[in-house]
What we know:
Layout: H1 11-14, H2 23-36, E1 41-44, E2 47-49, E3 55-57, E4 62-65, H3 71-96, H4 124-128, E5 148-155, E6 164-175, H5 193-202, H6 217-230, E7 234-238, H7 241-246, H8 249-252, E8 257-262, H9 267-276, E9 279-283, H10 288-301, E10 312-318, H11 330-340, E11 343-347, H12 362-365, E12 375-379, E13 389-393, H13 419-426, H14 428-432, H15 438-452, H16 459-481, E14 487-488, E15 493-499, H17 501-513, E16 516-517, E17 519-521, E18 531-536, H18 543-560
Parallel strand pairs: 6-16, 8-9, 8-10, 10-11, 11-12
Antiparallel strand pairs: 1-4, 2-3, 4-14, 5-6, 7-13, 12-13, 15-18, 17-18
Amino acid sequence: MRSWAGNLSGSSLIHPQRTSIHPGERSDCRKIAGQVGLAGSQFATQYIKSQNGKPHFYEKPVVESFEEAPLHVMVFTYMGYGIGTLFGYLRDFLRNSGIEKCNAAVEREEQKDFVPLYQNFENFYTRNIYMRIRDNWNRPICSAPGALFDVMERVSDDYNWTFRFTGRIIKDVINMGSYNFLGLAVRYDESMRTVKDVLEEYGVGVASTRHEMGTLNKHKELEDLVAQFLNVEAAMVFGMGFATNSMNIPALVGKGCLILSDELNHASLVLGARLSGATIRIFKHNNMQSLEKLLRDAVIYGQPRTRRAWKKILIMVEGVYSMEGSIVNLPQIVALKKKYKAYLYIDEAHSIGSVGPTGRGVVEFFGMDPQDVDVFMGTFTKSFGAAGGYIAGRKEFHSQGAPRMSRSSPADSAEEQDLVDYLRVHSHSAVYATSMSPPIAEQIIRSMKFIMGLDGTTEGLKRVQQLAKNTRYFRQRLNEMGFIIYGNEESPVVPLLLYMPGKVAAFARHLLNRKIGVVVVGFPATPLAEARARFCISAAHTREMLDTVLEALDEMGDLLHLKYSRNKKSARPELYDETSFELDD
């Protein structure tokens, strides 16, 4: 790319539309926010301009909650980790002295004089804190991950260093942890007949890469359907969702490019960014002031030392953030992208199929134009009950001064450039990874047609609507009970804050005893003092199931004293003070 001002999407990037919220409009927004009446929540007015220049507000207030825990909760949380750390050092001393048996991996005696293969302290947290509550993770299930599933019972005789199975199966556990948003990951029934037919015709594996003998007509059919579903011009599918990010981002940016990444982006985005060789700068989660400052500095100062203009600036965000349950502030990010002539890469792994009136993700959720996003990424592992991922976007770029698609691509010209065809040649995943399994491709095709109504029914649309109803009901009830929950009120990912490590273990164990399966999350996946339970709502959950879970949570909240909510202001007010947000030139 010649400079940061290159034009990816035509004249709209050269002459971006002005987007602003005028003082009078802000006061109207505040009045609406007051009417919402959700204390401790974030009200953000989404304001964009339509093609005719008239202002258009997103129909509903966007409410996101990040409530601060009471001071005593944070004090006891840090005290718990502090005491655990002290006892950890004591137990390490006992192990090193031979008084206590060490079950952790150690260097062999004959290798003591070698440079250590790994640092012993790196595993301190794993040995002394995580290991004591390890039974709450990696629980094996032995059924399809539907609304109900079966769990294999296991016990430990050595404080969770090893496990043994008892042979007992815990039947019909309510599944509140799987990303089965639309309930399409179920055991075989007659609706999956086409998947069985494809299995019989094509077999299970492809045994080749897309570059060699691994591109099937099923892949082409799926890619055309994905492009139609997203209302974009072209798409490419990959066999692994994680690799869709980590192996394609290095093909789009490289040395001399700048990546602006949300601080809560998924590990696959982080890995892809690091592998690319591009410069990475982090902006605060969903904070437009932080993002605009980085964009402005990038334009003014250019690259470090040389002060040359960046070859490319890429903004990387997620649609729904899987640990926070928040939804990207897309309209304002698009406004900034247009103003500063940057690219926008959006990961819709958790949002595609789960948000928007017809399940088409955050672009549809905000009523925006897909042309406003340069690169769409998503996975088929969640809403579609399958595996793999996709990259999609605009097919042709008619540009003089269009950005090159990578550091190795030819110089700018007036010729058309094809994002997807470029990735077909340069993507590491396309070159080296085995193609998507044909039965998996067919499962995605039937699921997508089901959601789009191409199967001749409206059942798919009903599932999307049911998911939205279940999400709002579950979040509302948790708020009423007094729990601190994070995220957007429309997000099917619902984090419930537990804070203290001892309560994390007790919470998961007690709920499993009541035949409710939950996912609990702690450091390093979350900040040290923000351990939580993460519920994933599904359209397959009945109201009776949700009420059963809510009743158990109500009792658990009283038993473990988890109802911390005081309806106070956000713990992160700097992320949501948008009153000075102005994008006028």
